[in-house]
């Protein structure tokens, strides 16, 4: 069992789903969580987490944190010496995800309401890892700029999963020091 399988066993999806969706928690399908948003299917979440390569102690940004499930999984991967910030634009989902997270002891996790017109949390950058669980039409430079040196972002762009790696020794704003690889086709709600 790898680290991703381990954390997915420790942090059950059921806790993060609305009551009417909990019977579907074990199915490998997306589940609606209200407000036009979904909790991604477990296989997709596992694929993204493996591409992200979170290690203990990392500072991680979870963009489009939705139900909070991926935020909790990221927190388990970073451990107590890490820091995970989830950002969500729907106030009701922020409240629900905070309530679900309160069933775990993870003081190194913070779920925030997104600031209108701002992607991520630039004031707290740089991040070691950024996970984006909503589809962009083009790669958002604002999020690339929040990656630290040797940082990795996993994001669906125009239907394709991208892994964006800022090379060691580079700093934000230096696009030539970013490597992008593609990792299959996926469907997500739009990044707004």
Automatic annotation (TrEMBL):
InterPro entries per record: PCMT, SAM-dependent_MTases_sf
Q: Report a single Gene Ontology molecular function.
A: protein-L-isoaspartate (D-aspartate) O-methyltransferase activity
Protein origin, superkingdom: Bacteria
Q: Please give the residue ranges the record annotates as the region Disordered.
A: 18-40
Compartment(s) where it occurs, according to its Swiss-Prot or TrEMBL record: Cytoplasm
Cellular component GO terms held in the UniProt record: cytoplasm
Tell me the lineage of the source organism.
Answer: Bacteria, Bacillati, Actinomycetota, Actinomycetes, Micrococcales
Q: Which UniProt keywords apply?
A: Cytoplasm, Methyltransferase, S-adenosyl-L-methionine, Transferase
Q: In which family does this protein belong, per the annotation? A: Belongs to the methyltransferase superfamily. L-isoaspartyl/D-aspartyl protein methyltransferase family.
Which PANTHER family does the UniProt record give?
Answer: PROTEIN-L-ISOASPARTATE O-METHYLTRANSFERASE, PROTEIN-L-ISOASPARTATE(D-ASPARTATE) O-METHYLTRANSFERASE
Q: What class of enzyme is it?
A: transferase
Q: What is this protein called?
A: Protein-L-isoaspartate O-methyltransferase
């Amino acid at each position: 069992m790898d680290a991703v399988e381990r954390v997915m066993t420790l942090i059950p999806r059921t806790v993060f789903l609305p009551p009417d969706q909990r019977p579907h928690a074990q199915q490998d399908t997306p589940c609606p969580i209200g407000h036009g948003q979904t909790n991604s299917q477990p296989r997709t979440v596992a694929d993204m987490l493996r591409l992200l390569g979170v290690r203990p102690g990392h500072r991680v940004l979870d963009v489009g944190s939705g139900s909070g499930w991926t935020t909790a999984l990221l927190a388990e991967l970073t451990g107590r010496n890490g820091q995970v910030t989830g950002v969500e634009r729907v106030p009701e989902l922020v409240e629900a995800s905070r309530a679900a997270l309160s069933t775990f002891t993870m003081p190194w996790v913070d779920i925030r309401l997104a600031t209108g017109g701002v992607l991520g949390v630039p004031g707290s950058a740089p991040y070691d890892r950024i996970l984006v669980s909503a589809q962009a039409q083009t790669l958002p430079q604002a999020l690339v700029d929040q990656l630290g040196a040797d940082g990795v972002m996993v994001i669906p762009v125009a239907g394709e999963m991208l892994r964006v790696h800022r090379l060691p020794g580079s700093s934000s704003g230096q696009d030539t020091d970013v490597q992008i690889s593609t990792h299959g086709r996926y469907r997500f709600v739009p990044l707004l």
